[in-house]
Amino acid sequence: MRITNCIFCRQQAIAKNEQGFATCNMHKKEVLPEMNCACKEILSIKNGKYGAFFICANCGPISLKKALSINPLVETEKKAVPKEITIRSDEIDFL
Ligand SMILES: [Zn+2]
Ligand SMILES: [Zn+2]
Q: What ligand has the least distance to the C-alpha of 23?
């Protein structure tokens, strides 16, 4: 039996996200952002017998590994949320 790793953190995958990709329990709510092919075409996701993979309109099937090598996953931590900046009135004089 093949051990599948979570596409986000490489830990052993025991779940799947809504796109059909193997994930750990922690990342099953995460989804992959739009992926591009090496030819710049946007890849569509297909679910096959061996799990999810990508299809490029120009190049045909693209494995998850290949797609991730073209589109490195950037950690989508909470830092993506813009922080609210509050300027206190006593700081305005300084600016
Ligand atoms: Zn994970
Ligand atoms: Zn392509």
A: 1
Residues with CB in 5 Å of ion ligand 1: 6, 8-9, 24, 27
Q: Give the model's pLDDT for residue 51.
A: 82
10 Cα–ligand 1 center, Å: 6
Percentage, residues of the chain above pLDDT 70: 77
What are 73's two structure tokens? 């996953």
Higher pLDDT: 32 or 49? It is: 32
